[in-house]
Design brief:
Shape: globular
Radius of gyration: 19 Å
Largest sheet: 7 strands, mixed
Strand content: 15-25%
Oligomer: single chain
Structural class: alpha+beta
Number of helices: 7
Helix content: 10-25%
Length: 336
């Protein structure tokens, strides 16, 4: 069993510097792959809601094998991958959502992203103020802290990039933990203790308090897992009954962010239209730089987002009083 001060040398403990110029984490769709997707999409009306596509009847041929192998990376490998080349410039937004849904359903089961039960989310700047307690970061153009979402995996499909900025950046949560063990072993136990996280007004019905509790790092089944959203920890401090953050806890949480953002640790991805990124929320931290949008509404940055429960979902019974993260469509706890 892994302990708080173990060094993990598995495949999820990567350094971005070693991968930045590599192509091993990216798969480029071939013309044959795209033809398969178009053939299957053309079986269904463009106006058909994506949730009504009978994905069990979709025949992806060799592309299904590619997606199966990529899916293994989420739990057993480095914890992320990128698919490039979906022809979003030639498809309507509805067709793009259908294709994204088909790909996602090959990897896992979509789960809701908010209290409204949204299954494909729209990531774009709405002009909202992230400083407000109930505003989620994806609805702003702000830089985001390194964080995880409340699902086994999160996927993003880029329809339109920003005019400037909006760089996706990933860091191995395992590497960050290893670096904390090497640099500040005195702080590591503080990241294995429980913190309060703000529900941000989306608590499940009947919940008595407006926050939930979780450790940042957890060891279970011999594997290290992470759950972090620093803004949600900070915002939960306003509630009665929440234990105040100590200076040492603040230092541990900030050092975690600092290490994740170091050039040697992080991996940057500049999304192009048609890029699809999937990552494990148990082993990979993700962030985004601030961005500047185009003035024309039709050109503004727009991503589609899926949250998935994976077939071999990790069971973390010590978290949230739940068996797994966001286990049902239309329910769960929501992060960014």
């Amino acid at each position: 069993m892994t302990t708080d001060l173990d060094i993990d040398a598995g495949p999820a403990a990567w350094y971005g510097h070693d991968l930045q110029n590599s192509t091993e984490w990216a798969y480029v769709l071939t013309s044959a792959d795209i033809a398969i997707l178009e053939r299957e999409l053309n079986k269904w009306p463009e106006t058909l809601p994506f949730t009504e596509i009978p994905t069990g009847k979709i025949d992806l041929g060799p592309l299904a094998d590619v997606l199966r192998d990529l899916g293994h990376e989420l739990e057993s490998g480095r914890g992320f991958f990128l698919i490039r080349g979906l022809p979003v410039e030639h498809w309507s937004e509805q067709r793009c959502a259908q294709a994204f849904w088909i790909v996602g359903c090959r990897l896992g089961r979509p789960v809701s992203q908010n209290a409204a039960g949204e299954l494909i989310g729209h990531v774009r700047d709405t002009g909202a103020d992230f400083a407000q307690p109930t505003v989620r970061g994806y609805a702003t153009s702000d830089r985001l802290y390194y964080h995880t979402d409340h699902s086994d995996s999160v996927g993003l499909l880029c329809l339109k990039p920003a005019r400037a900025g909006g760089l996706s950046t990933l860091a191995s949560a395992v590497t960050v933990h290893n670096e904390l063990v090497r640099r500040r072993p005195d702080l590591v136990p503080l990241l294995h203790k429980t913190y309060a996280f703000d529900y941000r007004g989306e608590q499940p019905p009947g919940t008595a308090v407006p926050y939930y509790e979780s450790p940042v790092y957890t060891t279970h089944g011999g594997r290290l897992s992470v759950y972090i959203s620093k803004p949600l920890i900070d915002k939960a401090q306003r509630f009665d009954g929440v234990e105040p953050l100590t200076p040492a806890a603040e230092e541990a949480l900030e050092l975690m962010q600092q290490i994740a953002g170091e050039v040697r640790v992080r991996l940057d991805m500049d999304f192009a239209p048609g890029d699809i990124q999937f990552l494990s929320n148990y082993s990979v931290l993700h962030s985004r730089t601030a961005f500047e949008d185009y003035p024309e509404p039709e050109r503004r940055r727009h991503l589609l987002r899926l949250w998935l429960r994976l077939p071999d979902s990790r069971a973390l019974p010590e978290r949230f009083g739940l068996g797994t993260r966001n286990t049902s469509v239309g329910g769960g706890i929501f992060s960014r």
